[in-house]
Amino acid sequence: MRLILVVILAISSCFSTYAQSLRLHPDTAVVTSGQVTIQGQPVTYSVKTGTQPVWNEQGEMIAYLFYTYYERTQVKDRAARPLVFSFNGGPGSASIWMHIAYTGPKVLQVDAEGYPLQPYGVKDNPHSILDVADIVYVDPVNTGYSRMVPGKDGKMPDSKTFFGINADVKYLAGWMNTFVGRTQRWASPKYIIGESYGGTRVMGLAHELQNQQWMYLNGVIMVSPADYKVLRQGGPVSSALYLPYYHATAWHHKKLSADMQAKTLEQLLPEAEQFAINTLLPALAKGSSLPEKEKDQIAAQMSKYTGLSKEVILQHHLDVPDRFFWKELLRSEGYTVGRLDSRYKGIDKYDAGIQPDYNAELSSWLHSFTPALQVFLRDQLQFKTDLKYNVFGPVQPWDFENDNTRDQLRLAMAQNPYLQVLVQSGYYDGGTTYFSGKFTAWQADPGGRFKDRFHFKGYPSGHMMYLRAEDLKKSNEDLRNFILQTLPGKSAAKY
User: Which of 3.40.50.1820, 3.40.640.10, 3.90.550.10, 3.40.50.2300 would CATH assign to domain 4-230+366-485?
Assistant: First the structure.
């Protein structure tokens, strides 16, 4: 559908003032409009694409964030309409991924399994959640077109203000407060969705928004969440959580026994999950104290689940590294499997080695996403600048210390009876495994008081499960139902 252009001039022209220094104006926007058919019904909307300042505690501008805000038009009761803030992860990733491939009204032109197609571009998304919720896609500092702003002395702000678990949620919560005020959405039910590291981000944001901005939420959605208490610490727990993912990937590539291959993933995975928790985890914890006979038996069982030989499993003392798995599973066929989506195959210089030369899935995604976004922003949203769009931006070193986001999520849920959580994961994601997503929910609520407020949905896809056409439809439907079911109506927030 053709977009109709309207330009908003904020303070001064979007691009002319800062053109010579390759900077965007920190407070400006371009507005366009469009229409998309969702679930058979026409949905008209406006799109505001622009920048909004980040203020420090002294009221000084220290950065600006680039955002794209989709708002359904012809709505009778704006106050009752949900608002979703969407973040990706990295850390250092822009919001491009979910913006033009998952929840928005436009998605990539890719094949049914998510592989690149030319000509690059986007098409209508008949599954978008825009029929039930407005969405704002946010690029954190140094991602997308978002940048720091020099002070009166010409110096840039301290990078520690932005690049860390706690710094990140603090300034983003403040920015969201400003956005909600400017758009007059304080009365709206609010949701935050984060993919990958964005899962850590939204767990922390739930607490920060409620306790520092007094902004209460109806839902937190974690898409393929990265739990850095697992990923960064390693050890028996981290290793054991990989086993069900290995099992799923081996099944996809038909490396299991005939009886296992005859089952569906849903039939297959519960057994592997129980083995990982009840057998593999304590065995890894025992280390050298594990009896050799028991070690051999467990290795044989792991071989059945993973498609790897018992010999290589024993050579790793049951602790098979993920990088080795990606290299080993299809080694005899001359392929590697992708990290974030193990349906993807890669080709290395040598079949030998302990890890792939490159990430086959990420190379494929960048192949299709980067040009498509450039076309979409410039041609359809009419946002034109020579500034480089950072799909992945310079945000290192990132401060991972004092990661209390799990407990912050639990506390936010305790404080807010309305708040519910949805985890969405792909079974073939080897970067942030689906079983780790379940584990995060268990650890966030160890007492089980909020079991009925945690929800999990799995898909036969990878990290970005929405790239697969069938799962684009299913994951959006799951998200739509979650939003509709967490609207409290006239019920009060109380226990």
Answer: 3.40.50.1820
